[in-house]
Design a protein that fits this description.
The complex is a heterodimer of chains A (192) and B (394). With 192 residues, chain A is of the alpha/beta class. In chain A, 39% of the residues lie in helices and 20% in strands. Chain A has a six-stranded mixed beta sheet with strand order 2-3-1-4-5-6, with helices on both faces. In chain A, strand 5, helix 2 and strand 6 form a beta-alpha-beta unit. Classes of the chains: A alpha/beta (192), B alpha/beta (394).
């Protein structure tokens, strides 16, 4: 793993970009990594484009500035691709992970993108089928750890289980659905 | 026993408040402090604390109720930000002059106008002469640690002054980071049982007057004692830090000097930006440039002697202010650091940078530019532009 991994999450208000950025950070923390997870706060409201960030490192993180050159970008909503450049600041060998029903090759063509590595997973459909709501954030975490190897699937499942069990006490089906979603996205994510 | 977890700054502050378990909290929500009050009210509702939680209609009332509670002889806290602190204003001064050991997290946020919710230090810098002890935190760990120590500092018989503990709005308050936390029992043991320093207002057998009228007959004696209490706070802050280090292994002082001993170039800065600056110091050190950093933790009382001592041998110093004082001179930290250096044997050139107002990002390139300027100032011994605005459109 790189000394410092920086991830930018592109979503729309209500899709859980902030939650994903912080859940992933928390999960990485649980296996001993140093982390930061924070959203960018603008005048956000339901449906408006929002950004969130995760930093993960094997060493303490002192930086308290914005993430401007993320190695990884996660796009929670493919309609955002038409609204400005999600690849801004991403290095040539960076990774773009998109929640879509299209393949990486189709996305590359649609985005007219050169360089970088594209991964896709239909996180919304997975969430719909496992959790019952098209909230793509937890499955995308599964896809992300598959791509990056930040942590093992088991460690992510264990931490997610712990966190969600607290948040959704008395609703075990929500917890179970989320865990299934993480596992499925881990298995179904496609690269080029 | 300490546990390593991940929390946002607001969650860490709320947790510290829960572990302190104050008798009374009176608070009003304001961005970006809201979560502290919200999470703490959950602790109250779930019976996790014995605190009497008073919901009030404004920050003026929040501080008034906190002052009332503290005067009745209990441990009382509140929390605020920006306009909330501004609305508390007159009662903030009363808390200090009545010598009430109130502890208050302040999540730093710019003051209006224009309306802005993001982090800068204009709110608490405005309150620097209110008589409160002011402690600034770099990250979630420090916010948590400082809040716990603040209780002991405030209530120390040599001090008896209110303490505000700061962290940067959003940059820290809403950012999740790793930190080590203590057990509830350890925090309880550390802060100890609250011992009222004078008879309670409710003690009818020992009547006292709190907040009396004092004109030119006695007002000045009150103020003189208040000033003396602030002087007395410095050794207490260090004493409490020492005891806290024994418990946690984490050392705190009046400031944190990073690679400063042999540094030619030094930045003086508060709060979260110190972390970003530390990164640049390491980068420059690898290139053989003698860069250092002084992160001030305690702004009130202002440790002018200690600062002068560690800064005197530098060849050039930049003081970074996340607030302007509109004195047509420089930022508040700058003028005080510069004044502290007046009595130093050597007086290195000092330059001021106002940065990050309204939450404007200060990134590695900004800090690199400051050190770069310092290289030139150290070479020539001259400051051509005393006050500079970093990352602004001119």
């Amino acid at each position: 793993m790189a000394k410092l991994l920086e991830i930018r999450w592109h979503g729309r208000g209500g899709q859980g970009a902030k939650t994903a950025a912080q859940l992933l950070a928390e999960a990485a923390s649980s296996v001993g990594k140093y982390i930061q997870g924070f959203p960018e706060y603008g005048p956000e409201r339901m449906g408006a484009p929002v950004l969130a960030f995760t930093r993960i490192s094997d060493e303490p993180i002192h930086l308290h500035c914005h993430v401007t050159e993320p190695q990884i970008v996660v796009v929670l909503d493919p309609t955002l691709l038409a609204k400005g450049d999600v690849t801004q600041g991403v290095p040539e060998d960076g990774i773009i992970l998109i929640n879509t029903d299209k393949s990486p090759a189709e996305m590359r063509q649609a985005m007219k993108l050169s360089g970088r590595k594209i991964y896709t997973v239909n996180a919304s459909r997975i969430a719909e089928e496992t959790i019952g709501r098209p909230i793509p954030n937890t499955p995308l975490m599964g896809a992300l750890i598959k791509i990056t190897g930040i942590m093992s699937l088991d460690a992510l499942l264990e931490d997610t289980q712990k966190k969600l069990a607290k948040k959704f006490a008395g609703r075990p089906e929500v917890v179970e659905g989320n865990l299934k979603a993480v596992r499925r996205a881990y298995e179904e994510v496609q690269g080029e | 026993m300490q546990e390593r977890i991940a929390l946002t700054g607001n969650e860490a502050m709320a947790l510290a408040m829960k572990q302190i378990n104050p008798d009374v909290v009176a608070a009003y929500p304001i961005t970006p402090q809201t979560e502290i009050v919200q999470i703490f009210s959950d602790y109250v509702a779930n019976g996790r604390v014995k605190t009497e939680f008073i919901t009030v209609e404004s920050e003026h009332s929040a501080m008034s109720a906190t002052v009332g509670a503290a005067s009745s002889g209990v441990r009382a806290m509140t929390a605020t930000s920006s306009q909330g602190l501004a609305l508390m204003w007159e009662v903030v001064y009363i808390a200090a002059s009545n010598r009430l050991p109130i502890v208050m997290p302040v999540v730093n946020r710019a003051l209006s106008g224009p309306i802005n919710i993001h982090g800068d230090h204009s709110d608490t810098m405005g309150a620097r002469d209110s008589g409160w002890i002011q402690i600034y935190s770099e990250n979630t760990q420090e916010a948590y640690d400082n809040l716990i120590q603040a209780v002991r500092i405030a209530e120390h018989p040599d001090v008896l002054l209110p303490v505000m503990v700061m962290m940067d709005g959003f940059i820290i308050s809403h950012a999740m980071e790793n930190l080590f936390i203590l057990s509830d029992q350890d925090v309880q043991k550390f802060v100890g049982e609250f011992k009222p320093h004078r008879p309670s207002l409710l003690d009818v057998d020992n009547p006292v007057t709190v907040g009396p009228l004092a004109l030119y007959d006695y007002y000045m004696e009150f103020k003189r004692q208040q000033a003396e209490a602030m002087r007395g706070a410095k050794p207490v802050i260090l004493e409490v830090a020492k005891e806290y280090a024994e418990l946690t292994g984490r050392k705190y002082g009046l400031f944190d000097a990073y690679k400063l001993d042999d540094a030619d170039l030094a930045i003086v800065v508060l709060s979260s930006t110190a972390g970003t600056a530390r990164y640049v110091v390491d980068e420059l050190r690898e290139k053989g440039i003698k860069a250092g950093l002084l992160k001030l933790r305690v702004f009130r009382p202002f440790p002018y002697e200690e600062l002068a001592q560690v800064l005197a041998d530098r060849k050039a110093i930049a003081v970074m202010d996340r607030a302007d004082s509109y004195s047509a001179f420089g930022g508040p930290l700058f003028t005080e650091v510069r004044s502290a250096m007046y009595d130093a044997k050597k007086r290195p050139p000092i330059v001021n940078y106002i940065y990050g107002l309204g939450g404007r990002d200060v990134n590695l390139d900004h800090i690199r530019k400051v050190y770069n300027d310092l290289v030139e100032i150290a070479r020539t011994g001259e400051v051509t532009q005393l006050v500079n605005y970093l990352g602004v459109r001119e």
